[in-house]
Amino acid sequence: MPTTAPAAAHSLGEVTASDSTLRRFLHGLPGVDAVGLEARAASLGTRSIKTTAKAYAIDLAISMVDLTTLEGADTAGKVRALGAKAVRPDPTDRTSPSTAAVCVYPDMVATAKEAVAGSSVKVASVATAFPAGRAALAVKLADVRDAVAAGADEIDMVIDRGAFLAGNYMKVYDEIVAVKEASGAARLKVIFETGELSTYDNIRRASWLGMLAGADFIKTSTGKVAVNATPANTLLMLEAVRDFRAQTGIQVGVKPAGGIRTSKDAIKFLVIVNETAGEDWLDNHWFRFGASSLLNDLLMQRQKLATGRYSGPDYVTVD
Amino acid sequence: MSDARLSVFKTYKLYVGGKFPRSESGRVYEVTDPKGKWLANAPQSSRKDARDAVVAARKAFGGWSGATAYNRGQILYRIAEMLEGRKDQFAREVADAEGLSKSKAAAVVDAAIDRWVWYAGWTDKIAQVVGGANPVAGPYFNLSSPEPTGVVTVLAPQESSFLGLISVIAPVIATGNTVIVIASENSPLPALSLGEVLATSDLPGGVVNVLSGRTAEIAAPLAAHQDVNAIDLAGADDALAKELEIAAADNLKRVLRPQPVDYAETPGIDRLTAFLETKTVWHPTGSLGASGSSY
Amino acid sequence: MASTSASASVFEYAPAPESRSVVDIAPSYGLFIDGEFTEAADGKVFKTVSPSTEEVLSEIAQAGEADVDRAVKAARRAFEKWSALPGSERAKYLFRIARIIQERSRELAVLETLDNGKPIKETRDADLPLVAAHFFYYAGWADKLDHAGFGANPQPLGVAGQVIPWNFPLLMLAWKIAPALATGNTVVLKPAETTPLSALFFADICRQAGLPKGVVNILPGYGDSGAALVAHPDVNKVAFTGSTAVGKAIARQVAGTTKKVTLELGGKGANIVFDDAPIDQAVEGIVTGIFFNQGQVCCAGSRLLVQESIQDELLDSLKRRLSTLRLGDPLDKNTDIGAINSAEQLSRITTLVEQGEAEGAERWSPSCELPSSGYWFAPTLFTNVTQAHTIARDEIFGPVLSVLTFRTPEEAVAKANNSQYGLSAGIWTEKGSRILAVASKLRAGVIWSNTFNKFDPTSPFGGYKESGYGREGGRHGLEAYLDV
């Protein structure tokens, strides 16, 4: 299994030379003071985004949504409906941008591809025994190859949190490298499940670990645990991608997922992006929202801005 | 008179930086009892002696303020032990200085020794009494603790040459300050002898520095000295106190104004707290993990 | 810098001004003596302007010696009954005041921003919540003084003469008036000449709360009004927050009297960043430390002491962060940096900054367009600063950071303490034992470790050395107003 291929591509290549160098590097990253981090996130949350800025932010947020359905009850019909909504979120207003992607399980990728065919909307697929990731590597890689073969443009993998928490960073690294290779041309999003990593120090280490291993995106969560994306953990990950680019020249995207339900929340995240990583990340190639119900709230707010009236749930689609 | 032995006089010296210098000025002045009987010549300190005492006190401050409160308590108690052993000498000196009967002077010395013991016990308690955690409205641990102000000049009471002296020195050093004490102008001998006790206890040199001489002359440069942090005006009259308080404003010394005190009574903690600063340290506490802030 | 007036960002924040209509400023205000607004005896007035626009906000009666005498007499008359009230009754007056402040906090925040020039974000989220909290905290003490650790039945001093600065006008008023009233004193307070309005609105709050006449008297004026108040023979207690020079003058003036004095004066706080600091939070702490309230804060972290091994990395991060600060209309909810309080203060900052350059320090500011009217100064940092530079020693009281380096903890402590001041300091390191070791060696009254510029009514605040004496806040803050 290749362990050094992607690392060789940047100046931090020697970091992943061995278990001990990797551990030393990750544990040498600056610590995170939780109170200070959360205070900064809260402070950015007080920004008042009005009128033209709000209109810009809402359209940007819509364009960044990975419209997601990850249910055991998913059917082809459900996925087709989701695809249609991703392509044309507001049937009454064609000026609304499409979402960035739809995000589905591997067995729904083909259906999703058909549903979004001819549009800019990408198909992302969770893989690697999502969400727990508790399967043999061979099974995880088969899961990935299956999704890619079905046409997935993007792969959302989960890291082995057990290995990470046990301090087995090289195992986590190797797995990401292997998945990256299996993903081929698909962009790889690496999900940390920040709620399970528990500490901000761990989230910072995981961020660097993921980037060193070749992640195209680092992603907070599966949406399947109690704590998912928060302003603070997303801010922390934005600091990581900002610093990684400064050191290596490589830009990596960020995807908070789970728990972002309102336009107000989404705009707070965009302010955090703007004032942390900077405007280079204000593009759906570099920032995504993993969400489902968020989209309707964005659309209602968009209608409000356009008409001056508050909208209601009957004026957006339930899909 | 064949059985009368000619006594050996004592040469009284200053106590500065743990040593016993004469005044650099070479001056002495006559010390008499209240009836005018000559007792001894005492050094008449100059402004340069005062300056040297500040240097010694500053040098001693780091170690003394950094010692554990328990250690300071042990040393103060040791001083009481040393005093107890030389009770008779102090009783004689106090009787001479203040014109007291033998028994009254002995009672004063007992009270003074008891005062050392009282303050020795305070060293490791005052922080708990005047400091503590503050329940701030946020994810922070916030603790206020008293810290010594630094180098303190003390004008010892003029009338109470030993009990008063100890009542103003002990609280200052108990909390970790170092002190330059100007002994009672007319009755400096118990103070100068105290230096000998301090030198043979475990008190580091420079923690207490004893100057004798003209109070106003010595106090003026000390009140204006930029490396003195506080001044206790116990032994100043109103006019001198005002003058010194004005001089002390140049570097905003903490000033304890003269006030009527009955040194026989058990003191409160005012003299302990007069030369303490409150330091408040904040640190975030936060939660155990990145459990997520609400937004 | 993302100025609210001009920026090339793709995500341009549209103006988001707080509504000015919540506050109704009268064209003129009198002195508040014995429960009434009254003209000055000599009829003198002065104008207060909005520092961000130089617009005249109102015309204010200027207290002279005769007015000071009148106010002190009123306070003396009120003292007898006020001090004799059961503590529980005084407490309820203070609780009322706290609640009315909370109710009127938006109005007061806008007013304070207009008169002072600081961003609405700060008046709304820091000043006003702290003002209300301070009254709330001391209200609860009024009937518990026997248990405050000063012995049984501690007594008030009498009439308190209080002189406050312009940097936190209403908050400094709260720090002065709340403990004074809780302990049974009555008050004559002089707000700063550039920021008298919130104190005059506070007079109206006293009226709404039904506070007895004469318990609080407000005398707007200049330094001479303050000097007359401090000198008044029937004042028992002097509380001053302001410059060290004036503090020393007060200390001289009260010499030989029985007036009890507390002084909260200048500072030159060292913010010490070790190589194992949580860097991103340290950068935020540095920014908060020196740019909060445009650096017009006595406890500002105006000296950055950074360990030499991380200097470049830290300065890069800091400069990048400064480029995101938004300077402009203080009423805009997105403004981070407001106006300097007065032309006089701006000129002092400018002079010291020019001196910094002349002495060879390297000056840097983010590119920044300053509004054409009003008093403005761009966030500034100086590198290549040594202990010998004026800007490393003198309090600038503006948005100007001096960056110095150190190699070892001992050197950091030595440099931090090498100052006539001793008000605040910051320590940034992830090593707990280093925090405690350094904190214990720093000669400063307030030490923030891994945070900065945090305030709380329960937490005593005040300085060592020439930063003044006495503590405000907490149980400690009661002592200044009691005969103990």
In brief, what are we looking at here?
Chain A: Belongs to the DeoC/FbaB aldolase family. DeoC type 2 subfamily. Chain A has 319 residues and is an alpha/beta fold.
Describe the overall structure.
Chain A: It catalyses: 2-deoxy-D-ribose 5-phosphate = D-glyceraldehyde 3-phosphate + acetaldehyde. The complex is a heterotrimer of chains A (319), B (295) and C (484). By secondary structure, chain A is an alpha/beta fold. Chain A has helices at residues 19-27, 34-44, 51-63, 76-87, 109-116, 137-149, 161-165, 169-183, 194-197, 200-212, 231-248, 263-276, 293-307, and strands at 65-68, 101-104, 122-126, 154-158, 187-191, 217-219, 253-255, 289-291. In chain A, strand 3, helix 6 and strand 4 form a beta-alpha-beta unit. Chain A is globular and about 60 Å long. The N and C termini of chain A lie far apart (42 Å). Chain B has a single domain (38-284), classed as Aldehyde Dehydrogenase, Chain A, domain 1, CATH 3.40.605.10. Chain B has helices at residues 47-66, 69-85, 87-98, 102-120, 126-130, 163-174, 189-200, 215-224, 238-248, 270-273; strands at 28-32, 38-43, 132-133, 140-148, 151-155, 178-182, 208-211, 230-232, 254-256, 276-284. Chain B has a five-stranded parallel sheet with strand order 7-6-5-8-9, sandwiched between helices. A three-stranded antiparallel sheet of chain B has the order 3-4-10. In chain B, strand 8, helix 9 and strand 9 form a beta-alpha-beta unit. Chain B is globular and about 90 Å long. Chain B starts with 27 loop residues before the first strand and ends in an 11-residue tail after the last strand. In chain C, the strands form five sheets. Chain C has a seven-stranded mixed sheet, with helices on both faces. In chain C, strands 8-7-6-9-10-20 form a six-stranded mixed sheet, sandwiched between helices. Chain B binds chain C through residues 129-130, 134-138, 140, 142, 144, 149-150, 229, 238, 241-243, 245-246, 248-252, 254-255, 257, 268, 270, 277-284, and chain C through 133, 149, 151, 244, 247-249, 251-252, 255-256, 258, 263, 265, 420, 435, 439, 442-451, 454, 456, 458-462, 464-466, 468-469, 471, 474, 476, 484. Strand 10 of chain B pairs parallel with strand 18 (446-449) of chain C.
